[in-house]
Amino acid sequence: MQKGILRDIQFVEKILQMTCDTLIVLDNNNICLDALVKTDNPVLNPRLQLIGKDFLSLFPYETAKIIGQELEFCRLTGQESNNNYDLPTSEQMYYFKFIIQKFDDGRLLCQYRDITRRSNMKRRLKAALTTLLEVEKEARIGHWTYNTATQQMMYSGFLNVNRKDVLDPVFLRLEEFLEIVHPDDKRKVYNFFFIDKHERQVVEYRISVPGEKIKYVVSTKYSRHLENDEWLISGFSQNVTDLIQNRIELEMILSVVFNAPYSIHANHLDGTLVFANKECRFQNHIPNSQRIFTLPISDVLKNFSSQEQWEEIIHELKERKGFYKYRCDYAYPERNIFSSECRSFLVKNGAGDEIVWTIRRDISDQLRYEEQLMKAKEAAEESEQLKSAFISNMSHEIRTPLNAIVGFSTIIANTEDAELRQEYGQIVSSNSDQLLRLVQDVLEMSHLESGKLQFHTESISLHGILRELEKSFNQPIARPNLYFHLLEDDKPVCLDRGRLLQVLTNLISNAIKFTPDTGEIHVGYTISSESLILSVTDTGIGISPDKLEDIFTRFWKANSVAQGTGLGLAISKSIIEQMNGRIVVQSEEGNGSIFKVYIPLSDVK
Hints:
This protein has 605 residues and is of the alpha+beta class. It contains 14 helices and 23 strands. It has a six-stranded antiparallel beta sheet with strand order 8-7-6-11-10-9. A hairpin with a 3-residue loop joins strand 20 (520-527) and strand 21. Keywords: Kinase, Phosphoprotein, Transferase, Two-component regulatory system. GO terms for molecular function: phosphorelay sensor kinase activity.
């Protein structure tokens, strides 16, 4: 190398350019006497004529004021000033180091060094560090190292597992740390430090501090091998208690939704499924193992037969601001469901997509109950009407024979003619019988409703019963021709004789009431191996089809003017049903009626 190069004047300028940004010489009035400018910014650059200018006039007021104070300090004390300054411009913020040295009594030698890049880097690093600390604080992250040789742990950070954060590193032995680890996790944590020597390893464990709730921690380690087979382990830990609790709560909520007794499903706006709970899968025959996430709704859910139906739901949802309540009458036989109440609503997921959630609740029992209530209401109203009609009718029916009894009883007392007294006595007796039948009908119906009706089964002759009825109805009064048809073989049957007579009497009396005197009534029976079939056929006025279902209703009368309580057929039907039998009627208006009674026989001899 050439000797004396640093003293050679021809190399001085080149050396200065290589060792500093800008070199400036100022007089005692801060006028620039000379300058070697390498800096390039809007305030100081080679394009400016610095020589002869007031150096401080180049800078903003606040910056110039501080630099001026430092220049005076150096002139008075001869000490060096070495400070950093801000240089704001319209383009950006610059930073520079300004070194001031006293050259001689009349001059100062100043070095201007641009440190913008370095300062920006420091600021960025500081901002990044601040951000990192904030993230770690928010995420509850702490850093640690563990030396297996000394069995000592150094820890700092925001894990907050022992009621506080640690900004300055603390040292503790592994045994001290293991004291706050949950007993069931101590072995796992011990293995994490000593047994599992992978360079990267993750462990989850619980922290149990007296007086505090259990905390959940995830630790990640990075290991480096040292001498003598010892390890220096470094890593970080995160307090994930909130995450675990949120996950537990979410899993609980999902479990409740999945096992809810309602059908619940979620869909994208195009209808493809996102979720279907267990009840929804059961009702729609979707196996729990089947993935549904790409399936159209009309291919999976039975109550949507087409894509158009789904689009109608979406239209209604948007019209009703994201909530739509409607009724679905699709039947699900497996659950005995025929109607459901649906509630659909829009919810945005974490990605911002709109998801349609639908909850379908079975309202079949509610509708059945409402229907029963309606029928009960109608029955009560009908019963009230019938009772009113019955009371009105009974008032008339009782008054008629009672007036005859009272009137003719008085006449008999004042009549000396024996034949007239006998005739009047028969009238009184007939009306007494009619009044008795009215009272008996009412009492009989009361017994039937209370369930106190009793049956006395005995072996009876059907021939005997029909002959008795023939004599009973063979009175010398105007009535239709009455015929009784007997089988040649009189087989006895085990039945309640009185109840059988009561049923036949009511049916025959009813036929007589609605058959003209010129008509005919036929009474007969047949016996099979299992049942007795009684029949009463008349050629009367018949019954219109719309009234066939009403004739067995209590207090109902086809003709409100006709005599009777309207209980005869109702009583007969109730007696037959309590004998495990049934009664049917065939009739055509104007062409008579046929009543048939089917009574099962437990013993036919």
